[in-house]
Design goal:
CATH topology of the largest domain: Rossmann fold
CATH superfamily of the largest domain: HUPs
Radius of gyration: 31 Å
Catalytic activity: cytidine(34) in tRNA(Ile2) + L-lysine + ATP = lysidine(34) in tRNA(Ile2) + AMP + diphosphate + H(+)
CATH class of the largest domain: Alpha Beta
Structural class: alpha+beta
Strand order of the largest sheet: 3-2-1-4-6-5
GO molecular function: ATP binding; tRNA(Ile)-lysidine synthase activity
CATH architecture of the largest domain: 3-Layer(aba) Sandwich
Number of helices: 15
Organism: Xiashengella succiniciproducens
EC number: 6.3.4.19
Protein name: tRNA(Ile)-lysidine synthase
Length: 446
């Protein structure tokens, strides 16, 4: 192996792809295996300021403890500051319903983030190599993560750098052998109990039989896919900026614009994936676009409603079914909505307010406390100008209100009577009359 060429390639990647600066302090995820061993020595050879971080997941009994001891001895010899932590990985995984792989990943990256703040490290370097990238491709392909997931890992993502992505696992082991670096071997890597190991030990060898240059071919494929995703993302970002309305964690997507787009499936996947919606669910959303409005879809964090004209995506929250009292003498409230309350003598030149967020009532007909609550099945009131009751649900339908708007609506109640569908219509029974003496004014404030 030409170690000089290998180091030169690493040096170029470190500057051009990982964008490491002279003043960066690099926290190195150091397991003591071949990948992290090569990484630490290569970084030291480049003159980088390094701190080593070792996680003992206690998944291999005495072997895990031996790994930790070996890693510490290496760092002492190299005069690299060493940090170690211990995890009860199996218990953590069981308590949270995670796979061992996902539990270990969450534990280590949470600790790395904490350690970076404590040590002042500016970058986290991991020993991921080209074979890891191929395995990630197949994992994401099986999970249905979309085009982005098929691009694999990048040399730099935020503060995480992966300078060894250019190299194969065999090249890294050869480098350690030529340079005389001892390293630990994780015995679980030869087992096929974990998803990644199944890909490594069972699937990739089959492709290598079909194509002896499979590693190089996949490196090129991942590069092309990354470029392709960049082109697609630019189009998706442009569409999102032009068409999608966003407010906080909620978004509104015009249905017609989605239906007219020739690549609506991929586009909708790109827009909805950050909210937890995945492949088959997005296909079902597309099929529902020509159906009856009101269908809903749920991810772990958000709800998507297919409304008449828009797709509405909102965070999942517990619907507020409680009542909020407005006591007599109170001039304003801030929960559940901001309101100002006042009572004054009816002026001779009184005119009905045309502001939907301002309501006037005959104060003589009202008895405090008043209550604000959400609508319930069977609710009805007598809309202003009518002499018969109407269901609140029918009013919402007449006004073509979306499901989200209905759920966000509040009712102001006097005892069992609904005085006001807030911001929409007051009850005719509480309107200002000729014999009204005092007016109760309630305003919804921004």
């Amino acid at each position: 192996m030409n170690t000089i060429a290998f180091r030169r390639k690493f040096s170029d990647i470190l500057i051009d792809k990982c964008r490491v600066a002279n003043n960066d302090i690099i926290l190195v995820a150091f397991s003591g295996g071949a990948d992290s061993m090569a990484l630490l020595h290569l970084l030291k050879n480049e003159g980088c300021k390094c701190i080593a971080a070792h996680c003992n997941f206690h998944l291999r009994a005495d072997e895990s403890d031996a790994d930790a001891l070996f890693a510490e001895e290496v760092c002492n010899r190299l005069k690299v500051r060493f940090h170690k932590t211990d995890f009860d990985t199996r218990t953590f995984a069981e308590e949270r319903g995670l796979s061992i792989e996902m539990a270990a990943r969450q534990l280590r990256y949470d600790w790395f983030e904490k350690l970076m703040k404590e040590t002042g490290a500016t970058l986290l370097a991991t020993g991921h190599h080209g074979n890891d990238n191929i395995e990630t491709f197949f994992l994401n392909l099986s999970r249905g993560t979309g085009l982005k997931g098929l691009t694999g890992m990048s040399f730099r993502s935020g503060s995480i750098i992966r300078p060894l992505l250019f190299a194969s696992a065999d090249e890294i082991r050869d480098y350690c052998k030529v340079e005389g670096f001892d390293y630990r071997i994780d015995s679980t890597n030869i087992e096929s109990d974990y998803q990644r190991n199944k890909i490594r030990n069972l699937i990739v060898p089959l492709f290598e039989e079909l194509n002896p240059s499979f590693f190089a071919t996949m490196q090129n494929n991942l590069s092309y896919l990354s470029d392709t995703y960049g082109i697609f993302k630019a189009e998706a970002d442009s569409f999102r900026e032009r068409i999608v309305a966003q407010s906080g964690d909620s978004i509104l997507i015009p249905i017609e614009n989605i239906k007219e787009h020739p690549y609506r499936g991929a586009l909708l996947f790109e827009i909805l994936q950050p909210y937890g919606f995945q492949g088959q669910m997005i296909s079902a959303v597309i099929k529902s676009l020509d159906g009856i409005p009101g269908r809903q879809f749920f991810s772990h964090s958000h709800r998507l409603v297919v409304d008449r004209f828009n797709l509405l995506v909102v965070p999942i929250t517990e619907l507020d079914k409680s009542s909020h009292a407005i006591e007599g003498g109170v001039s304003e409230i801030s929960v559940p909505i901001k309101m100002s309350i006042s009572i004054f003598d009816k002026p001779d030149n009184y005119k009905v307010s045309r502001d939907p967020n301002t309501a006037h009532f005959d104060a003589g007909l009202v008895e405090f406390p008043l209550f604000l609550r959400k609508s319930q099945q069977g609710d009805r009131f007598m809309p202003l100008g009518m002499k018969q009751f109407k269901k609140i649900s029918d009013l919402f339908i007449d006004l073509k209100m979306s499901l989200i708007d209905k759920e966000n609506s509040w009712l102001l109640c006097n005892g069992d009577d609904i005085m006001w569908v807030v911001g929409v219509r007051i009850d005719d029974r509480y309107k200002i009359r000729a014999n009204t003496r005092k007016i109760l004014e309630i305003k919804v404030n921004p």
